[in-house]
Amino acid sequence: MRTTSSLLALLWLAFATPGYAADLSAQLTQFFQARDPQHAAGMTVVVRTPQTQWPACDTPQLLLPGNSRQWGNLSIAASCGQNRRYLQVQVQVTGEYLVANRQLARGSNVSASDFRLESGRLDTLPARALLSSSNLADAIALRDIAPGQPVTATMLRQPWRVKAGQNVMVIASGNGFNASSEGRALNNASAAQTVRVRMSNGQVVSGRVSEDGNILISL
């Protein structure tokens, strides 16, 4: 019985009309556009899997693994009842991304004026490429960056708001209470990053660095 069902599915796909291909492509495009509405207008989905291996129903249920990348080459599950197929697709996205305006030396302080936005394929950029110039004030280059080079998050860091060995104020807050005490930072950290602090009693705690340099702990 299963062999017969498989044969029927293959025959159905063999005689599938171009309209079915368009419908599946449209469904996949809508699926990925809903997943990333910010870039929906510049998105195209290309199905790499041969049509003979496509699901044999009009509206398959589409599912992506939770750790899937946002764009590029992806594998998506398409289910028709108990029959599940995996489709290889390429999600192409066009949009704006950040590049360097000039040569930036490692260790130099940079600002938003050192960068510009260019338009192109986002799915072909290096991992963690920056798509805007926000949060670049007083940033520090971690490596040499050439003019016109796409900028990634690993190329820059914010200035240290807290440095190892520095005395800091730790503020713990919970439901209806606040407590504060001084300690010594054990690592460097920028605002919004996590820092470990050794308290006066020897206990080590972890908290988030605030913009004013205090260490915040939520209980």
Structure overview:
This protein is mainly β and 219 residues long. It is built from 2 helices and 13 strands, in the order H-H-E-E-E-E-E-E-E-E-E-E-E-E-E. The protein has helices at 2-14, 18-35, and strands at 43-47, 61-63, 72-80, 83-100, 109-110, 115-121, 139-141, 156-157, 167-174, 177-185, 194-199, 204-209, 215-218. Strand 9 (167-174) and strand 10 form a beta hairpin. It is flat. Mean pLDDT is 89; it is low at 7-18. It is found in: Periplasm. Keywords: Bacterial flagellum biogenesis, Cell projection, Cilium, Flagellum, Periplasm, Signal. It comes from Pantoea dispersa.
How large, in whole angstroms, is the Cα Rg?
25 Å
- What do the pLDDT scores average to? 89
**Could you state the oligomeric state of the chains shown?**
single chain
Helix content: 10-25%
Main sheet summary: 5 strands, antiparallel
Q: What is the H/E order?
A: HHEEEEEEEEEEEEE
Structural class by SSE content = mainly beta
* Coarse shape: flat
Please report which band the strand proportion falls in: under 5%, 5-15%, 15-25%, 25-35%, 35-45% or over 45%: 35-45%
Helix count equals: 2
Family: Belongs to the FlgA family.
Organism: Pantoea dispersa
GO biological process, one term: bacterial-type flagellum assembly
Pfam family, one: ChapFlgA_N
